[in-house]
Sequence to fold (323 residues):
Amino acid sequence: MASNGKDSTSVTSSGTKQFALLPKIVNGGIAGIIGVSCVFPLDLVKTRLQNQQVGPNGEKMYNSMLDCFKKTYRAEGYFGMYRGSAVNILLITPEKAIKLAANDFFRHHLTTSNGTLPITRQMAAGGLAGLCQIVITTPMELLKIQMQDAGRVAAQAKAVGKTLPKVSATSIAMELIRTKGITGLYKGTGATMLRDVSFSVVYFPLFATLNALGPRRDDGSNEAVFWCSFLSGCAAGSMAALAVNPFDVVKTRLQALKKVEGEMQFNGVADCIGKTLKHEGITAFFKGGLCRMIVIAPLFGIAQMVYFLGVAEAILGIKSGNK
Fold:
């Protein structure tokens, strides 16, 4: 059975094998924190590119990924590139832990009696893992997007003579809970589910396939060498990210609570898809696609690296079942 880099079983002191859930959760959390800290500025640029709409005369605030990066840095400085990172780092730990641990859990239980895991079951395991994570992903993405897009909205408001008050993730969350209850934090759940489930359906089987092609650490081991797991994570992550980018654009636009004056409002996934297609064309669904590929590739490469190193196993004193 192809795995995510580390075997899903561990060996206890008595020599019996069991599914080790705790190290998967710890590894996922560590991978999330390290990965997000490295790629967050690019994620911010991705969000702003996806949210900007083309004006009636073709005018737009950012002409490219590099242009957006330069303008954001010039206007908001180094720390401005990390707007919204606090809430993302706080919630990425449970989000990545759920995603990676749930996939391993479902792979473990969907493995056939003869020890194989057909591609359809790999896709099912990935999809179920993506479904599990939206309980954390939706509010995390909602709050992150408000913070990341605040600079763009404020800059365009200033251009028409208006000044918007500064906001924080806490103030946004409290206002949503006060006015709409806890469900206010789950705006865009449908689009988030479309993106995360489809991403996981593509990513996990693709990673397992690529990872299985590389050399093993030891004879008879199921674990690939470090560089193979890292590159497999990068390749699978970037390809899956591009494949589901249209869903990410829809999710980002639905979760942007504040719009620039004159920008379209959307009432659900179907309405967002219809209006975007009508006014901006099919290419709008691939806005920020390159950014997202650049963000996701190292994020998942790092995740597989952490799994390979067995950080949690070392901390918890758990011996891998492969060794």
DSSP finds eleven helices and three strands in the chain. The first strand starts at residue 9 and ends at 11.
